[in-house]
Amino acid sequence: MTEQKAPLEIPEIMTDLRKDIIKVPPVIRQCSGIRIFGRRIKSIVYSTDIAIIRNIDADAVIAVYPFTPHPTITKSITEAADIPVFSGVGGGLTQGKRSVQMSIFAESQGAIGVVVNAPTPKETIQDIADVVDIPVVGTITSLFTDVEERLQAGVSILNVSGGKDTANIVRKIREDYPKIPIIATGGPTEEAILETIQAGANAITYTPPSNGQLFSKKMDVYRDKEKQEATSQD
Question: 123-133: per-residue pLDDT in tens?
Fold first, then answer.
C-alpha cells in the first residue's frame, strides 16, 4: 500500500517593504481559472491605478474605464503591470475603427486580451477579432444581452458584470454554454463570490479598496503609534 503524503506547504517570500500588498479574497482560489497562452488566471483585479496594480496578489488586471480608451493609458498600464492585462478598447462611446486601432495597439503593448463593453456592435467585434491574436472579451450586463450574437461575432471569453444579478446571469449562460470561459464580478462578500463561482464562473474580478481608503487605515495606525509613544513618555 502506497503511503499518502501530506500536502506540501507553499513557501512564501516576503520583505518588510512589500508586506502591505493587497490580497484578493482567498475564496477566489476555488474557481477553475482560465488558461490563456499557458497561464492560469483565477483572480483579476479591476483597476487602472498603477500603484494598486503593482501591489496586489491578483493573477491579472482588467483595465477598463468610463472614458474613451487612449493609447497612453494602455501603454502606461501594460508597462507598469507585472501581471497580464486585459485592456478595455471601448464599446459604448468608442466603437468602430478607433476600437479596432486600440485593440491592435493593446496587443502590440503586450495585453493578454481586449475587452469590449456591452453596447459594442457585432460589426466592431468582428473587425477586432479579425485583426488581433489575443482573446476578445465581451461584457455581459444583463439576462437580456444577446450572448449568442457576441460569440458568433468573435468573442471568446464572457465578462459578466450584472450587479446583484451576476450569479443568476452566470448560471443561465453556463446552462446554455457549458464550455465557454466566464469571468464575473464577485460581489462585496466571500459568500457572494462563492455563489458566483458555484454558478459557473471560471475567474473572478475583484475591486480593491481605493488609495484613499488604504491611506486612511494606514494613517490611523500611525496616529495610534504616536499616541502610544506619547503616553509611554508621560
Answer: 999 999 999 99
Q: 21-229, which class in CATH? A: alpha beta
Short-list 26, 73, 61, CA closest to 197: 26
Q: How much is the pLDDT for 225? A: 72
Supply 89's cell numbers: 478598447
> Which 3 state secondary structure label does DSSP give 99?
helix
Instruction: Note the pLDDT tens digit of each residue in 46-81.
Output: 999 999 999 999 999 999 988 889 999 999 999 999
d(CA 173, CA 160): 10
Report the alpha-carbon distance of residue 42 to residue 22 in Å, rounded. Answer: 16
Domain layout of the chain by residue ranges: 21-229
Q: Where are the beta strands (DSSP E) in the chain?
A: 34-36, 39-41, 43-46, 60-63, 85-88, 113-116, 136-140, 157-160, 182-185, 203-206
- For residues 100 and 97, what is the distance between their CA atoms, to the nearest angstrom? 5
